[in-house]
User: Fold this.
Amino acid sequence: MSARLPSGGSRINRRKKIDFQFNGRRLKGLEGDTVASALLANDELLVGRSFKYHRPRGIYGSGEDEPNALMGIGEEGNFEPNVRATDIQLRENLVVKSQNHWPSLSMDFLSINNLLSRFFSAGFYYKTFIRPRFAWKYIFEPIIRRSAGLGNAPTQEDVEKYEHVHFETDILVVGAGIAGITAAKSFQDTGLSVLLCEKDSEFGGRLVSDSDELEREINHQVLKKNLETLKSCENVSVKLNTCVTGVFDHGYVLAIEEKSGETNSPQKILWKIRAKKIVLCSGAFERPIVFPDNDIPGIMLASAVRDYIEFYGVLIGDRVVLTTNNDDAYKTALKLKENGINVPAILDARKSASSNLVKKVKEEGIKVLFGKCIGRVEGKKRVESIGVCAVNGQGSIEDTIQCNGVAVSGGWVPNANLWSHCGGKLEWDKKNGFYKPDHNKSSIGHDGEPNMIALGSCSGVFTNFEIQDQVPRKINQLLMGMKIKSKRSFEKNPFRKEQFSADIPVFILPHGAGKDIEKRMFVDFQNDVKVTDINLAALEGYESIEHAKRYTTLGMATDQGKTSNINGINILSKYLGRPVEEIGHTTFRPPYKPIPLGVIAGQYSNKLFKPTRKTPIDAWSETNNAKWEPVGDWRRAYAYPQENETISQTLTREVLNVRNNVGLLDSSTLGKVLVKGPDAAKFLDLIYTNKMSTLPVGKCRYGLMCTEAGFVFDDGVVARLTDDTFLCHTTSGGSDRVYAWFEEWLQTEWFDFEVYVSNLTEQYSQINVVGPNSRKLLKRLKGISLLDSKLPFMHFAEGFLDRIWVRVYRISFSGELSYELAVKSNDAAVLWEKLINLGNDFKVEPYGTEALHILRAEKGFIVVGDETDGTVTPQDLGMNWIVSKKKEDFIGKKALNLPFLNKKNRKQLVGILTLDEKFVLPDGCHAVEDGRPIGHVTSTYFSPTLSRSIALGLIEEGHSRIGSTIEFSVSKTESAFGKLVDPVFYDKEGKKQDV
Amino acid sequence: MYKVSDEGAFVEVSLVSPIPAISLKLDHQNLKVKNKIKKVLGIGVPSVQSITKYRHLRLCWISNDELLLLSEGKEVDVILKKISKELVSTHSLVEEVTDLRAWFLLEGEKAIDLLRKGVPIDFSKFDLSSKSFFRSRLGEMQVNILVESKRRIIISVLRSVEEYACQWLKQCSKQGSEINFDL
Assistant:
């Protein structure tokens, strides 16, 4: 049984007990525990069920390589699924739930899959469930999705806090093991800024934890001295609990900082780091050996067994057998023995070994069986015994050893994931049996130079002595490459040279295992990939590792195959009889370990999700019961309902008030782009389809812009302020787009034009005073004359109204007498309130965007984005009049002459009057003819002015169909009929606006 | 001045009154233009990402063809007329932009750290004790950053996102959310 030792555990505080829940049961852990160590301390060996077969699984590792112990952590808004128990610090009252079982972890009915495993081999879903056809969608797939998988997605809003931080550094050192610390301090006095990121909460990696009693004090002192030096390096910043999760182009690196204990501050922070050079000291993973029944709870990586004892004072069992091919695992045996644990045997795949470690183990009385391995593991939910067999045999059991824990080690492999993220290549180290970074093929930085070096065990250098020898040398080379001279002198290597017996790279044991045994050997625990699955993939022709990976899902789980890739590659290599170098490897991709979506969103959720642009009149509208709608990035008042009014009643009131009295509209959102320079007129002639150079100073002209393809892009009124200055109005959503469009053409095509443009959208707010009483209302404000003789239609004037500077445009988007007052934004709210309060007897009322739309639709005015969709030309809109025939060129001119854009059957804008006058067509509904769609409705309203429904639509050959009646499909079963008419429904002569 | 940040925030943030401002688009690299600016404003053209100051005027570098003039005084109309007159024969666009932006004052030792949460600028490259001026983004907002000193920074955003900027600065300056380093 797993349990807590009476003493030990460098990371725990034995005086501080912590209550937590596991699957509804209350358990106790200690401060400093991870969820994994706390579960083991409570003898919870069974912690999950496997992905496909629902096999019982236990904790296998101690870090981010853990494939089995995925948990749902927290509750309600704090719930997070698929979290590795090895990665989570235990908190008071933490709720932990295991995943992927029904009805309970202990008794999982879905484990029937295990009995049916012969039907669930790799790619089974490509071969079965083919008939009956309907069953896949409605029966098979839903069942598979329910029975296979990971945790459930949270159902409630995430209440955790996240943030982003931007950080720039010359050097990023990843990992604060002895290699990382040595590397970071090597940059002292270089003038370079250095950021050292360590995913763990402590420095030193395995330096102290893996030391024997003799080395421990020396290593501890070395670490302490190094940290003191590091502390004195003013150019070095250090982040603990910060895991680098992705390396991207040009030294852009993402790292996640995890905080704990502070509830009001962000719990996870996404660091967006820009580094000129990256020094990778990310360490190594222990690789398991694949053997029969190797997934039973109680089997654990040898290094993890050590970690749990060293850091948390927790044991995997009290009779632990080791199976290995290397000396390092012997450290585990000694650690166990040191803590009074019985180690019945070490099964060493090698023929012999005689290093000091091996000798020491033997001296401790531990039996070492060379040339032996595990041929069988007994036990269902925990290990009960193992069967010993010969390494070179077929798996015949020679002996049985009673035990309740198995520690497995296949040696260490470099953790080269980050090296690969941005194109760094790996090379196969045949002697050691692993892939390691190829230093000649690193990723490339912004300057085209290699921007990453790997040091320490992630480069395939494992002993402290060798690391201490390698790191300063390599950093010096890096500095020389950067033309920086290091002032540091090389220090004496504080470590002693270690002697190890050579490892033999073995991946699956026993070597002669047949299919019956291989099907009990798991390679990828998280995706339930067995040796037989990889063999099957190869048999079926998936010989490339990339294909085999996708067919079997090897290495495609959330751990990205940290414990399975190398074994998988070698199994494929063995089956195909080809060297591993030829098989190659798959590509590691960010993130290095799973990260919550919340941390990607950072602080940009809820109120900060997206900036909402508000006008200076927004606050008035808010207090006056405005209903809102989004328009581009803006929020605009949709309508101003009065007490007990329905929206429909509000719209009717607002429209009729504009037609009969006077209405005020906040149109501040309209884009305003100032164009100035000797070539401004020439430039605008090229931008707009109509001519702007002929526009006199003091006048306004409506203009339309097309893309190069001839499609309508934006529209608005242009006012000529001076000979060389134009103010171009754009749609509300289009100001930034149009400004960028102007700049782009000026910077790329017409760079010789003397034109400056400036986006003044927010400098000026705009208030539309609309209706027959508008002039009377404005007359009450002292200032510029607004008489028709002084300010005729399509003119503007500048001056003061009641001591507020304004630019008044005599233009109309409603068909009524209308003045649009541009005012400096800081004065807008004051002017608005003045106008509202001045005109009670004229019945002045605000109106919103929906009434605006009804008013313009009654007049047949288009709205870019409603009547256009990026495929509509001015001709389609019946606006040939605005396309200059005289101009030599403008954007879109060539395209507008193409035959395709002049085809007879193009969709053209028409007005629609439904035969049933009260029936308002649904927006976007299709016009159909003989069952074929021939167009759609673009705008549709009930017109209070006309007391009937009106609509605009784009209909095939619409212009020639005017007068005919066509069918509109309004639902699956219903149709309505409408007569096609001219789009102008109201005051076709335009008399009302020009009075 | 309206205090935006919470009590105990690691940077004190305040919304300040709009700063009278004039945008100048012109070829300010040109010696003749430089001289005209010096003549009319008594102030030299700033180098990249910096500002020049004369009495109550500050001239900020926006881009190779744009400067932003900030005036502590209220006489922006007078200045605008003077500049326009001086530059009448020079291809330029001179426009008052006082109403375009909302301004915030950030005060505290860690003012730069607050900006680090949203601004992708390598501040470490600059000597922040001198006057610097940056154009960048703060989250999704366009931002101008005027560094008066390491512990006093003025930023501006478009006026339409003033409320959003308040929320952003309030949340990101909260006590406990400082950027800290270990060791």
About this structure: Chain A touches chain B through 49 residues (CB under 8 Å).
